[in-house]
Amino acid sequence: MSAGDGSATGPWLVAGLGNPGAKYAGNRHNVGAMVVEELARRSGTSLRAHKAGAIAAQVRLGGLPGNPGPAAILAVPTAYMNVSGGPVKALMSFFSVPTQQLIVIHDELDIDAGVVRLKRDGGEGGHNGLRSISGALGTKDYHRVRVGIGRPPGRMDPADYVLRDFSPVERKELPFVLSAAADAVELLVLRGLVDAQQQVHAPRG
């Protein structure tokens, strides 16, 4: 895969996972959708209803003046998390997106809160959105931007934890986390996975 040239084999699809509706909008489980909204804001556009069962926008990611960057579709499925796969597959078909140019952004319990990590392929870690996408596509070989939310405190059920809003302390840090995750997406499409991982995963001094 060549970095930064999505137009050669179709555009990128950047899918942010979450649950639809105002009651879920501030949940930890919706952080993937929040990152897509940040990318849309950077691109000066807004997400609009698409027949694939999502809100979406066509953009250029990570470009500079005079160099617009790779073509991408930003999208948030409007179905519930555990059936995200159908809309993602439909968007890939509609826009002719190859699997290697799918990026799924999601919350990750097994990563410290606020930490962003990139990977391709591998298991779903019990994440229902990823499980649905892997099942719909028949493969796990796609990119993931994993946004850490940390483990629940005490004996709280993880299923309850992810469906709660970010705490007041977390909300203060959230804009920085969303910005870091959006940066990671742009690095991935511009420079490829390995280079992006080296930069995103580097220890912060």
What does this entry show, briefly?
34% of the residues lie in helices and 20% in strands. The protein is built from six helices and seven strands; from the N terminus they run βαβββαββαβααα.
Question: What order do the SSEs take from the amino end to the carboxyl end, as H and E?
Answer: EHEEEHEEHEHHH
Rg (C-alpha, Å): 16 Å
Q: Using DSSP, what is the number of strands?
A: 7
What structural class is derived from the secondary structure elements?
Answer: alpha/beta
**Largest sheet, strands/sense/barrel:** 7 strands, mixed
Order of strands across the main sheet: 2-3-4-1-5-7-6
Strand content: 15-25%
| Distance, first to last CA | 31 Å
Helical content stands at 25-40%
Shape descriptor reads globular
If you had to describe this structure to a student in words, what would you say it looks like?
- The chain has 205 residues and is an alpha/beta fold.
- The chain has six helices and seven strands.
- The chain has a seven-stranded mixed sheet, with helices on both faces.
- It is globular.
Helix-strand blueprint:
Elements: E1 12-16, H1 31-42, E2 48-50, E3 54-60, E4 71-77, H2 85-95, E5 102-108, E6 116-120, H3 128-137, E7 143-148, H4 158-162, H5 168-191, H6 193-200
Question: Which tags fit this structure?
Answer:
205 residues; alpha/beta; seven-stranded mixed sheet; 6 helices; 34% helix; globular
